[in-house]
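Hi R.,

Here are the chain sequences for the assembly we discussed:
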Amino acid sequence: MPSATFPARFEFLDELRKFVAEFARENGFAEKEIYSLQLAADEAASNIIEHAYADVSNAEFDVTCDMRGGALTIVMRDSGKSFDASKVKQPDLKANLGRRQVGGLGVYLMRKLMDEVHYEPNAKTGNVLTMIKRRE
Amino acid sequence: MEITTQEFKHCDLVKVTGRVDSATAPEFSKALEKSNGNSRFNIAVDMSELEYMSSAGFRALLATQRNCKRYNRGELVLVAAPERIKEALELAGFTELFKTFDDVVAAVGSF
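And here is the predicted structure of the full complex:
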């Protein structure tokens, strides 16, 4: 069960995507699925860096990958500001150009790309994001 | 990520290669804004050698498309997006907001 700690800076997203891809590849995921896993992990980490750790320098977050029963689980833990998932509006994909909102797009993609996405906010022990994708 | 901008008579061809994510998207935005800053509002974005694009890149495309289409002065079109990137754009509902072309010649010729 590989685990890694990443500095909460966008420059490390490349490493995070490699970390996830390597584990998925070892566990027999197809390249198309690996792309989806990388994108979901990137969107999740970008949200942590941008929102949970807004105005925090030298922050870090932990990522763990696990494979059980044909399903890959990515868990991300941060000790930043909790995020209220209920406040994230589903983007209106039918809206025209002028009305199209871009906020919430990352969360929307995570939900679409993964089979399950769970978020447990906790100001004391840290926030835990769990994303699961079953191998096709 | 690398970006090159080529000026044609009727449009700018912006080729973006490599990976666009939250770290590199600001530079991508800047390149697109530079075209707009030069009063170039017809833009073809060549994605043929793009490996990866997250929603940070999608946001840059959307913001530029808004700016290009204002006063009907132009539009941004997407060229040769690799399959996986196209799928992500579709998932985000972006394909309806941009014309897409299979190759650069057709895209540049469309303006």
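The first strand of chain A starts at residue 3 and ends at 7. The interface with chain B takes residues 10-11, 13-14, 17, 32, 35, 38-39, 42-43, 46, 49-50, 91, 93-94, 97-98, 100, 102, 105-106, 108-109, 112-113 of chain A (CB under 8 Å).

Let me know if anything looks off.

Best,
T.
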